Amino acid sequence: MKKISDSTIGRLSTYYRTLSTLIEKNVETVSSDEIADINNITSAQVRKDLSFFGTFGKRGLGYNTKDLRDEIASILGLKKKWKIALAGVGNIGRALINFNEFKTQGFHFTALFDNDPKKIGTEISGLKVHSIDDVCTVIKNNEIEIVIVAVPTKMAQDVIDVFIKCGVKAFLNFAQVTIKVPEGVLVKNENMSIELEALSYYLTKE
Amino acid sequence: MKKISDSTIGRLSTYYRTLSTLIEKNVETVSSDEIADINNITSAQVRKDLSFFGTFGKRGLGYNTKDLRDEIASILGLKKKWKIALAGVGNIGRALINFNEFKTQGFHFTALFDNDPKKIGTEISGLKVHSIDDVCTVIKNNEIEIVIVAVPTKMAQDVIDVFIKCGVKAFLNFAQVTIKVPEGVLVKNENMSIELEALSYYLTKE
């Protein structure tokens, strides 16, 4: 299988959302031109992204919205209920627990972790806060595969190392620091202040 | 001036953080190799990114950490205090108000907006929640240049349109939808669930 770029995968997620909106509106077929137009990209890009995964749609007839969404769901692994954990129940962490889009897309918070004795043992939105010391047991018992890390910057690498030792291979990291991981482990970074800096760069260079 | 890619700008933000950490540790000079190693990229990439903006450092001597951080701060527009507004004071919005990294990098929340009559007029972290109807007045009086949008997906386009009419040109959008904007306006998207889908794709294709 060819190496697919992160950008292609990101656009598949976007197409998935576009198709969901169209299906909600009872639209049964859609062309690559229409998908492209909704997302401000070219139709050649849409066709290229999809071509990595097979032949979808019929020439001249476009794509069946439900079939294409279904195919993309398979590609992205969205047909499964993913059990995820949250490390760090501060402001950002607590907000994420209540972020409905995660659940809509099949990502369910199953365990919370923190190192603050005042938080450990309490419940947030019906989920118990566990000690970082209990990571391996809780991860195994709950079959957790993805961990969202919302701990202070200086602790992020150490916390992620603990989860890696317990077998976790996929992380979404909100700490603004580059994390080093062994091969076979993927960390995606959610760099909110870096996005803001792209805006200040844009406004400054004008 | 050449068109600089978003990836280059994102890496400059990362180098800025690397240099800040080194300066905290009293490190006075650093090589492109060292910056590269900390961030899991090649030193050729570091040199190429910096070369777009001039000649920094001395051949064989590396970069002075404070000078280079200062240059990058100028490029990214980080020497100025940016006044930012938040549209939507739900879970995510409230968490962002307390996200310290924004302030550290020079982005200061100055106004909050919501359309919920129960929230309008209240204060959160010392900032008054204004009605979306008052956007133009509040934006102008407070010289706000960047707006963070954390409203429900279906409202995002309409809310951003209101701010654009009042002269705002830069947005950080947390709603999971592609926003259409006229030329001269930049929207950066914070797609948290799309990043999670990149992880589920990664775990699925294994």
Keywords:
alpha/beta; Rossmann fold; 206 residues; seven-stranded mixed β-sheet; homodimer; 45% helix; 9 helices; Arc Repressor Mutant, subunit A
Structure overview:
2 copies of one chain form a homodimer. Chain A is of the alpha/beta class and 206 residues long. Chain A has 2 domains: 6-75, Arc Repressor Mutant, subunit A; 82-194, NAD(P)-binding Rossmann-like Domain (Rossmann fold). Helices cover 45% and strands 18% of the residues of chain A. Chain A is built from 9 helices and 9 strands. In chain A, strands 5-6-4-3-7-8-9 form a 7-stranded mixed beta sheet, with helices on both faces. In chain A, a hairpin with a 2-residue loop joins strand 5 (123-124) and strand 6. Chain A is globular. The relative contact order of chain A is 0.09. The mean pLDDT of chain A is 93. At the A-B interface, helix 1, helix 5, helix 6, strand 8 and helix 9 of A face helix 1, helix 5, helix 6, strand 8 and helix 9 of B.
What string, H for helix and E for strand, traces the elements of chain A in order?
Answer: HEHHEHEHHEEEHEHEEH
CATH architecture of the largest domain in chain A: 3-Layer(aba) Sandwich
The chain-level structural class of chain A is: alpha/beta
* Average pLDDT rating of chain A: 93
**Strand order within the widest sheet of chain A?**
5-6-4-3-7-8-9
| Cα-based radius of gyration of chain A, to the nearest Å | 20 Å
Name the largest protein-protein interface in this structure: A-B, 63 and 63 residues
DSSP strand count of chain A:
9
Number of domains of chain A: 2
Quickly name the level 1 CATH class of the largest domain in chain A.
Answer: Alpha Beta
Major sheet of chain A: size, sense and barrel closure?
7 strands, mixed
